[in-house]
Every structure is written in structure tokens, then in C-alpha cells.
């Protein structure tokens, strides 16, 4: 209803993935700028994030949703989906196809699917089970509409993140926002101070080019 | 313009009024407030010596010490040294008033500040009365003029004197001038304290939010990186989405302030020892001039909101028998037990539990009955044999689990065990029973859940079960008993939803209808919003976790007991849902919040609602509902009882068939003889 939707989100981003892969931690790192142990998510949770002149709603879901009616609710009209898996647990990667592929049918047709490996701080390169190539491949498969020029320029929708070390988290979210609601360079400058919750102690992550992880 | 800042363990509210008219005339400089973030805030009314009530409030605070995790970021308890008497002083310098009620002890005066200083906590022993902090309230029109202000003191107060540091006092490093000096955070360690462990805190760099306002600039520049590290928290209240005050005592002095940013982050400040009312007055002023600025053309800030929730229910909203039942304590419980151990007059007992709850000291005795482990009419002897049988039964389940085939074990590990293992280590870890590294009770928690999944393969394990089990285990403190109580909780009460969608659907259907009948305005708002809103997303967690994450543990368990008592309805939890909406939902309708914001609204209230108030309201709603001569068919069965007592008048209203979707059969006509679903 327009009369009450005075602050309707311009973009709906959902995060999906197995239990305990770190979905809530990822969001909290981005929104709050902090890392802490999370309770298991039960029911729905969601956050607003301004992006330039836009409002973005980030929906957190339960990895182990008891009530299947909800999954479709989350996905309805989602403009982007973060498919999160634990880089140290291949099973959670397999789940992305198996569990969440079908759920995403309810999302927007052009829904951007971003594959995100979590807990990169715990990865031991020698023993890692899910390679960056595999993750990248899945990301490209899930987004057949992304043209090559864009991928060349902005990178594939695949990120390896660490909410603990604050690695690639902001980059990942901004990749999504910039893809779905592009801001001009001028807008970036104008809104930077307002939208960013970048930790001032960590000057490194501000501005500059987007660092790709793969 | 108003700012709120938290420096270490102190909250500083700085209000400055904008230049009006003359241009070169700074009309006023509002006031500034310093309040300690943490538990032991205490702003004392001038002229009133609160020496006695101080200890009363302190003891209520000690319950929080027992369950620090559940009272959110309030763990900064003050050292509890009852031997020290500190001063209570109040200094109001509004156009020159200084009041203090004098008690011996440290005293200081901070101009342009409303200040409360609390010594930084280390690890207070529970159940010790907390020290009452020193309190300063200073409001002044301008910093220069306040120097010439006159002082009015309360009858038994001593004149305000400039603060002299007292090394023996716990308040050894107060802030002399809150408005300007932010460079000396008192407690460098406090940012790592639990106040930041709650998931609704602002980021440490929240002052970025005030960047839009040039007048906030000076404050910002003064902040070094070290300030931030030490947990300085500062926001421009003018840029906030909402500021809400929740009183949780009837006198309206204690409670929480919840500040929500436009990014929907929340900061919650607790006032366990009073003083919130004083701060409210200051906020009220702020709220007024916030509206003034709105008129000047900042119409793009429609989110500002100043809400005060007072825990008041008029008598006609309450159940008529509301105050007749005290907590069920050991004596009362023993009264209901015959010599051979049978429980007599179960209905009366359940009614008492419904109204008064169970004394935590006898929960381990009472819960096994409420959770169907022991029948009420069992004798001591019967119970001994049940205990034996169930012990053997449990051991057998354990053996089954441990002797699974390798394939089955592999499956079990992948689908159950690894979820359970991830969940138990993050369940109620701040509860004393589960606290600390390598706590053996975590292993017990895990084993019970694994065994339950083996014995109930159709239920298995779903997230949230650990949340439900933890309090049961903490109450019984015994693995086998906890298992069977948990088992009763999961399978024999409809209060807990099983993972099946149809159970949740039924609950939500009832809830929607109950909302429609009892809170038509709220329901109408949801209806206008459409199907998404009618999904009642904001209630899902309430129902799935039985309000465990909505109220602090003490109150949540009282809600559980009121539900388990099954007095007059098996669906009391739905009345609790409606009560929450009734008390805290006005905003939703008034501001016409969209569906997702309704969820945000209620999740921001989690752990900050007044559980006792909600319970009272819920009991009142139940009474009201049962008085209705006519109910719609969609609510048929809500109050039909499986085992009503002989004194219960029963509930037999006229059932009216209303329109329900064509593909659905009328719940009444299809099944008029057995309205109660589920168990027994």
C-alpha cells in the first residue's frame, strides 16, 4: 500500500545458506561493523541500509527454517540473493544448489545471485575443499544473464569473506548494491559519508578500487 | 540539536538549541546529560531521600546480575560494596538550581551536565546490593551563565560543592565537564565488555551518522581513534529515527531508552535503579524542539518518533482475579500434596501457577508435572518407578544412538549432530549453568538433543530446540529428567510448534482471528497492507521459541509457566502475542508501518518489553475473550479445554459461522464435537 509504504525499500537483498555458515555474522559485520557470536537465527530478521538516495532491506534468514512457508516469503521480489557457504565445509557449498536453487524461483527474474564463501580466516590453503574456481563457476552458472564485459570490469559475483577479519564484506555488499542500484561517481562522493559505516580505524577499506578476491 | 554520547560507561546527552531569530544570539545551550550506561543508574529526585529505596532497587538489580546475558547490554554492574555509602546528589542548574540530597560521600558538580557516575564494574558477586551511584543533574541555559547561577537545595541537602576527587570512592575518575571533554574515557576496557555483545548496538563509529550536521563537527574532531576504541559512542539525536522510553516499573522511574538510527540500529540504555523519568523530562524538551525544526522544512525526516511506554493497565483491562495469587512457593506446593505424594486439587494449583508463576526454587519439582513427566495423581512410589523406567528407557535410547551402523552414523552426523554441535555452544552461554569454557553441561545439552533426535526421527533436530531445552535442563539439572521434560514439552503441548507447517498455520490462523476480534484497528492495518503483513512474520519467533528471546529469562519463564498451566485455554501463548501487540503495537498503526518495518519494530523491542505487564494484559485478554457471548467459527476451539476443573464454568459461547475462504471447511461445522487439536 502506497499510503503506508513511505519508506519502502528500493532493493531487497536476502541471504541464504546452511545453518551456522555465518549469515548473521556477515550482515552484522556490515551493518554494525562488529563481530560477535550469534545465536542461531529463528524466524526472520531484517535490516535497513541506506545506499546513496536508496534504501536497501537486507533480510537475514534461518539456516534451518522450520516453517517452509517463510522461504518463499523471503524470496518474493528479492533483487539480490547472497548464497553463503562455509569455505571450510564443502557440504554447505553443495547445499546451495540442492536447497536454495528452487527457492529462488520466487525471486525477481533478474535477481543477482552472489556466491559468498565465509570464514576465509579459517581456510587452510593446503587442505581446502572448495576451490575459488568452483565457487566462481557456480556464481557464473547461477547468473547466466551477466554479460562478460561486466564480469570483466566488476568481477564475478563470487566473494570469499571473513566477518571476523572484516575481509571483503563491504566489497561484497557494495558489489551487489552497485550492480542493482548503480550510483554515479558523483553520487558516491556525495553520499559516502552518510552511507558508509566503515570503521574509521581501518582506513584501508574506504574508497579506492574494489579489491577482488579471485 | 541533541546528541547522545557514550563514553566508556557513561551516556552523555548533549542538547543544544539552534540559533533562533537574531542570528548572533545563541539563545540557549540546552542541557547536557551524562548517564552511565549500565545497570546502576540512579537519578534521585531532589527533596526526596531515597536512602531506603536505594537498597530495594539494588536488590532488584541483583536478579539481573544472575542473568546478565538476558538483560542485554546491562552487564556493567557496579561493584557491590554495601559497606560503602556513597552520596546521592542531584544538581539541577536550570537557570540556577542546584539540588542535592546530602549523604556523606563524594560529591561533585558538573556544569552543563546531567551526570551519573558509576564505578566501572569488574565482576560483581551476585545478590549483593549494588552501590548507589553519585548523581548529578545539571541543566543550564548556557555554560557561561551557569557560573552565576543560584543554588536551591533540598531540605536535607548540603550545598553543591565542586567535585573533589576522593580516592576512596569508587567514583574516582568522574568527568568534570562533560560537554567539552571527551578525551579521557574512564574505562578503556569497557568496549570489550558485554555491552557490546548484544546484537542491537550501534557500531563504535556511529558518530559517522552525525556527519550531516555541521554543528556536530567539533565533537567529531575531538575524537581520536583511541576514543573510539574505548567505546565512545555518540549520535546526533536529531538524526535518529526514534527514541523510545520503556518504563518497566509501576513508578515509572526504571526501564530502557532505545535509540534507533535510520539504519535501524539500536542502542539500548538500561536504568535499573531509576532516573529514567528525569531523563525523560529532558528528552521531552528535545522532542518539542525537534518538531520545531521539522516545521522549518526538514520534512524529509518523517521517522522521528518519541515514544514513552508506561507499564500501566487499568483494572478493567486486567483479569478480575489478577492479584489474588502469589507465586507458588514450596509451602503452597506441599499443601497440595497428599501424604503419599499425590497432587490434589490440580485445577486450583494450575490456576495459581497461571496467575502467580512458580518459585524458581521449586521449579525442578513442579516442572516435571507441568511437562507431563509425572502425572499429577502419581504417588511418591509411582514416581520412583517412573523415574526408574524412564532412566532405563533413556539409556536404551542412548545405546541405540551409539550403536548405529556406520552409514547411519554418517547420516546422523551430517544431518543432526553437526547442527546440534554448532548450536549448543551458542545457547544461553551467559546463563550461570552453561557459562565458561568446557562447561560439562554443554555436553549434557548436546546429548539430550542427539538422543531426542534418535528417539523421534520424525522430529529430528530443528534450530531453536536447544533454546527450549536449556532452561529445562538448568531447572532440573539432571540429564534424564531434563530429557523427559523436554520430550513432554516438544510433543505433548501444542504451545510449542512442531516443525510441521500445519501446526504453525493453525497457530497463525487463530492468531490472525484473535487479532481481528480483539485489536480490530491493528488487524485492519495489516489487512490494508496485504498478504505479506498478514503472514504475521513478527510473531513467528515468539511462537517458535515461546518468547524466549523476547523477554529476559526471568519473565520468559513466567510466560512459559502461565502457558504450561493450561488454565482455561491451551493457547494462552496466542493471548500473549496479542497482549504484546496491544501494548507495544500502537505505533505500528499510528505510523502506518509497512510489513517489514513492523517486523523491525517488534524485533527491536525484543528483551526490552515488560514481561509481567504483557502477562497481565494477556490474562485480561483471555478473560475478555471468554466473556464474549459469541465467537466466530474461526476461533472455535481456542478456549475449549481438555481437562477443565469442576469449578471452571467452561466456555460455551455461541459460534457464529463467518465467511472463510471457499475451499476451507468451516472449522466449527466440520468438527463440532472435538474442538481440541493435538494431544490428550
From TrEMBL, chain A:
One of its GO terms (molecular function) is GTP binding. SUPFAM superfamilies: P-loop containing nucleoside triphosphate hydrolases. InterPro entries: P-loop_NTPase, Small_GTP-bd, Small_GTPase. Keywords: Nucleotide-binding. The keyword Nucleotide-binding applies. Coiled coil: none annotated. Signal peptide: none annotated. The keyword Nucleus does not apply. It comes from the Eukaryota. Belongs to the small GTPase superfamily. Rab family. This is Ras-related protein Rab-1B. It comes from Elysia marginata. The lineage of its organism: Eukaryota, Metazoa, Spiralia, Lophotrochozoa, Mollusca.
TrEMBL record, chain B:
Residues 55-86, 119-197 are annotated as: Disordered. GO terms for molecular function: GTPase activator activity. Pfam families: RabGAP-TBC. Residues 357-567 form the Rab-GAP TBC domain. The keyword Manganese does not apply. Residues 143-153, 185-197 have a biased composition (Low complexity). Residues 174-184 have a biased composition (Basic and acidic residues). It comes from the Eukaryota. SMART domains: TBC. The keyword ATP-binding does not apply. GO terms for cellular component: early endosome. Keywords: GTPase activation. InterPro entries: Rab-GAP-TBC_dom, Rab-GAP_TBC_sf. PANTHER family: TBC1 DOMAIN FAMILY MEMBER 16, TBC1 DOMAIN FAMILY MEMBER GTPASE-ACTIVATING PROTEIN. This is TBC1 domain family member 16. It comes from Elysia marginata.
